[in-house]
User: Fold these one by one.
Assistant:
Number 1:
Amino acid sequence: MLHFPFRIIIVLVIVTAYTVSEGEGHGITATGIPAQGNIVAVGPSLLGTFVFIPSLGWRAALDRGGCVVDIGDTDKGRCSHVTHLDILMRSKEEALAFGRQVIPVMFLDFRHYRVTREKYKKE
């Protein structure tokens, strides 16, 4: 039996785009790093994972958004009741051109492996 140090989640999601100038974050992600490069906003249970988006490639899930929900989370009040992620874009024009798409994405979750590896280092 093979054991991989990550889990893979493939899910159909609503994908939208945002820019640094939107919201109240002032260019800082939920993880405290500058909002630049290949970043997406995800629900809290997927923060810290990597996301493969067809036609865009790999992105790091390092931000959160007001209406970005977790897989299967249906209790967000004013927000949509489907899985949603938000892609950081360089400009408002690029974000508007991307629009709103429903596409399959793949999440790679190495978080458990890192925690486990650190745990064994301490012992």
Number 2:
Amino acid sequence: MSNDVVDLRNFYAQRLGVAARRFIGRGIRARLADTRGMRVLGIGYATPYLGLFREEAERCLAFMPAAQGVLKWPSTRPTLAALVDELDMPLPDAAVDRVLLVTDASIERAQRALWEGLRIVVEPGGAAAFSALHSGGYLPASGERVGVVLSGGNSTAVRFD
């Protein structure tokens, strides 16, 4: 299962997507606190989070898998996004210092866990924030209370075989 890049862009443009980006972005920023002078690569639909590093990093690129599609990023500057084959990255060894991987697989696992554990159907974008918690990508601080809003408005039937 692969989410279309247009659906992902539309999700992140909605209020729920803005909240998810803010929530997940905090966890990402905590793990990649200082990227000054580094070369940062986002793989998948990472553009909502790459903006955190674009001004301080030496270079910031977005590689989007062919099955997902690609959108121009950033929208008002020269393009830093490319459509790539998932198994053939067009970079030499040691070309980047940090990689930010945003995968459909972790979102699908979160959707499956919500279905199997609670019988809740959520759309891929609506499972993004839960995916960050479920995968361990975001680890709440001791005593931190976390709330996740789930959305299923744009769901399609999915079999979790």
Number 3:
Amino acid sequence: MSQRPSIFIIRTGPRFVKMAKRGFWSAEPYGATVLLTLVQISPIEFNPWSALAKVVGRAIVVGRAINADVARELAEIKEKLDGHVTMDDRRNADGHRTRTLHFNNELLRGIEHTKEEFIEALAEIDAYERYCAAHPEYPNNRAVLAIENIRSNYKERLQKHDFLQEGT
């Protein structure tokens, strides 16, 4: 025994339209468009296309408001992140300066160093000077003489070939 599709009736003005549920929704791909157009033409004071446009319009307005909130929050996060990056960069520069001053202090106390240790100290100096050049507001007066001393000491040892030899 086969099942009959259920039928529903739509009133469109003085006429009635009979439609089978199965045929309307599955076999007729443009059924919803036809239905909305029939309802729009009918003397009922409801225009589904206008209602759909209003819904879409509200969604766009809400979307813009949400986008504005998201943009404001992103700006706040960016500002905080920039502050953290600045603080981290400054902390790194302080570390380069500290290691440079420590190395110079060891030279002043007569502690000998290998050529590789001098090269590492010079790399710290280069990183420190790059940061100072990029950030003129950063105080640099504490390491200028230490850097001069390390460079002159390195040049002197390089000419004399008297770096501390590893293993001795």
